[in-house]
From TrEMBL:
Residue ranges of the TM segments: 159-177, 184-202, 214-238, 250-272, 292-313, 334-354, 360-384, 391-410, 430-453
Membrane topology summary: Multi-pass membrane protein
Record-linked InterPro entries: Dup_hybrid_motif, Glu_permease_IIB, PTrfase_EIIB_Cys, PTS_EIIA_1_perm, PTS_EIIC, PTS_EIIC_1, PTS_IIABC_b_glu, PTS_IIB_1
Biased composition (Acidic residues): 474-484
Keywords of this entry: Cell membrane, Kinase, Membrane, Phosphotransferase system, Sugar transport, Transferase, Transmembrane, Transmembrane helix, Transport
The protein's name in its UniProt record: PTS beta-glucoside transporter subunit EIIBCA
Region (Disordered) residue spans: 462-484
Subcellular location(s) of the protein: Cell membrane
Location of the PTS EIIC type-1 domain: 115-467
Taxon lineage: Bacteria, Bacillati, Bacillota, Bacilli, Lactobacillales
Record carries keyword Ribonucleoprotein: no
Domain PTS EIIA type-1: from-to ranges: 512-616
Active site: C27
């Protein structure tokens, strides 16, 4: 085995040399290079070196996996070469871990966009669900005749349900700014500026408008999403620029002043008008498509409708719908119902598949009910579909099925209404319309139930089919013995208990090649249900990363165990983690090692699946992990045979 200095030299030589390195950091097990040109890397040589476990390119990082002694190799590199210790909060002069995470993924723009959207809307999901349920309650109360739409009580409750949606730009500004790690209140002010009454009143102006001589087109920003998402993506680098180059003595007022001064006019001049022009183009295209084929129009319109809502250009369709209503009936809103009920079906499919996951089941049920009763699907669209990309093809297929059928049957809306079960009488012919939306709902439900949300969500139900208990205690023990163990070789058996409460999943299902390939060693992974990490056995803390996301333990049998909380959580730079233990400390089984905030880590866009790895697997006859099931800290998850 090469020593650390030789390994460090070898790595730099085969990574393309010092001149090919922009920056370098390390986490608990691997060196993370940001390279100028990855084509200069001799990957085969790196993987073949005895001091390197593996090497892999991930996003804009090149990762060289060393193991528990990575810090020593890192230090040798930094001592020998003039390489920037980059991408930490210090090196980046105030840049956050989340900003760094986005920058290193610059080679995958689609992932960045969806991560940005998901990270922005995740904190708003409870508010979306709550507002949607109030709308559903109002619909039921008015339909039953218990509440009049003319009453002041209705007005108060309607305001409670509409507040979030009306002031969406403000909430988007705050949440997006938090995700991008810039001032969230400035983000909120930018959104509020677009809703300010004197600004909004300019829409009614009869004369042409301009801003410093530039033609100005005023848009209605209430309930819009797209303009503020784009605005905040532009604002983030502007804030960082002024923070970097403005004197400390004036930063308090100068940075936010410049941000607001630039972004409100920029949004009004560019992002809002873009939505209007796009709306008009889409509307013209729909008119032409309707003349060509009503079935094709239904397929296309129902497929794209949810994304028109996201872009905020769906209001451009309203004049066409109103004109159609004046002529007797509107087919477009009936076609859009295919997309609306497809979203309800997706939410119901999530509820059925993940009914034992309290968070997913409660949110999906709330989304289903608010959609069915009130036609409010924003909690589904922003809470699930834009968060879990595999739902998008399901939405397209199920929405197109219903929309195409509406076009085929010639169903129309005869009085203006939102698409919900309670508004079915506003459409006709009713039997054909109901059949069409039922198809969308059923297809969305079935496809979602079959394909699910992904590995991490599926871990919560991985053992649902094995949870039926036999009649006797003896049968329970026998079944558990048969199902939970692989056959062990002869030798001394050492049990490693679970350090977390949660769902045990195979290491091969972890979405990180280094862990799933076994390059770091054999073990298991846990999807935690709470944020308390305890010692799985009596041991000594052999390594403890400063960001507290990973800890190494060694026991009296020589087992070297690595527990890595979440994926890429080193980027959080210790945020959401706390601990009072330290490297070199002796700990007993069950002692608390680390506390972490599961929900906050997930909302920051990180997976919390946590590998538990025997890093010196080759020193033992066998390392066998248990089968997938729910585990608690006293349950065995790994057996090591010595």
């Amino acid at each position: 085995m090469a020593n650390n200095k030789e390994t460090a030299t070898f790595i730099v030589e085969h990574i393309g040399g010092q001149q090919n390195v922009d920056s370098l950091v390390h986490c608990a097990t691997r060196l993370r290079f940001k390279l100028k040109d990855t084509s200069k890397v001799d990957e085969k040589a790196l993987k073949d070196h005895p001091g390197i476990l593996t090497a892999v390119e991930s996003g804009a990082q090149y990762q060289v996996v060393i193991g528990n002694h990575v810090a020593k190799v890192y230090q040798e590199i930094m001592d020998q070469y003039d390489i920037q210790a980059g991408e930490s909060s210090d090196a980046d002069e105030g840049k956050s871990a989340e900003e760094i995470k986005q920058s290193v993924r610059s080679k995958n723009p689609i992932a960045i966009v969806f991560e940005y959207i998901s990270g922005t809307f995740s904190p708003l999901i409870p508010a979306l669900a709550g507002s949607g349920m109030i709308k559903a309650l109002l619909a039921v109360l008015t339909m039953a005749g218990w509440l009049s739409e003319e009453s002041s009580t209705y007005a108060v409750l309607d305001a409670a349900s509409n507040g979030l949606f009306y002031f969406f730009p403000v909430f988007i500004g705050i949440s997006a700014a938090k995700f991008l790690k810039v001032n969230p209140y400035v983000g909120g002010v930018i959104g509020a500026g677009l809703l300010e009454p004197s600004f909004a009143s300019l829409m009614d102006a009869s004369q042409s408008l301009d801003f410093m001589g530039i033609p100005l087109i005023i848009s209605d920003y209430t309930q819009t999403v797209f303009p503020m998402l784009v605005a905040m993506a532009f604002y983030a680098p502007i804030e960082r620029f002024f923070k970097k180059y403005s004197p400390d003595t004036i930063q308090l007022f100068f940075v936010p002043m410049m941000g607001i001064l630039i972004m409100v006019p920029l949004t009004a001049l560019i992002f809002g008008p873009f939505s209007q022009y796009l709306s008009q183009a889409i509307a013209n295209g729909l008119v032409a498509l309707l003349d060509l084929s009503s079935i094709l129009t239904g397929v296309v319109f129902a497929s794209v409708w949810p994304f028109l809502v996201v872009l905020g250009v769906h209001w451009g369709i309203t004049p066409i719908q109103l004109d159609n209503l004046a002529r007797g009936g509107d087919p477009l809103n009936a076609m859009a119902a295919g997309a609306t009920f497809a979203q309800m079906g997706i939410a119901f499919g999530i509820f059925l598949r993940y009914r034992k996951n309290k968070d997913l089941s409660s949110l999906s049920l709330a989304g289903t009910v608010s959609g069915i009763v009130a036609g409010v699907t924003e909690p589904i669209l922003y809470g699930f579909i834009l968060r879990y990309r595999r739902l998008i093809p399901i939405l397209l297929v199920s929405g197109a099925a219903g929309g195409g059928l509406v076009g085929f049957f010639g169903a129309e809306m005869y009085s203006y209404a939102f698409n919900s079960v309670l508004t079915i009488p506003a459409y006709g012919p009713i039997p054909q319309y109901v059949f069409s939306i039922a198809v969308s709902f059923i297809v969305g439900t079935v496809l979602t139930f079959i394909f699910g949300l992904g590995k991490e969500a599926d871990a919560s139900i991985a053992t649902e089919s094995t949870n039926t208990a036999p009649e006797s205690k003896e049968e329970v023990e026998a079944e558990k013995e048969a199902d939970d163990k692989e056959e062990l070789v002869e030798g001394k058996q050492i049990k490693i208990q679970s350090p977390l409460s949660g769902e045990l999943v195979p290491l091969t299902e972890v979405e990180d090649e280094v862990f799933s390939s076994g390059a770091m060693g054999k073990g298991a992974a846990i999807l935690p249900t709470d944020g308390t990490l305890v010692a799985p056995f009596d041991s000594k803390i052999s390594s403890f990363f400063p960001t507290k996301h990973a800890i190494g333990l060694t026991d009296e049998n020589g087992i070297e165990l690595l527990i890595h909380i979440g994926m890429d959580t080193v980027q959080l730079d210790g945020k959401h983690f706390s601990s009072s233990v330290e490297e070199g400390q002796e700990v007993k089984q069950g002692d608390t090692l680390v506390n972490f905030d599961v929900e906050a880590i997930q909302q920051a866009g990180y997976s919390v699946v946590s590998p538990v790895i025997v890093t010196n697997t080759d020193s033992f006859k066998q390392v066998a992990s248990e089968k997938s099931r729910h585990v608690e800290p006293n349950d065995t998850i790994i057996t090591v045979v010595k």
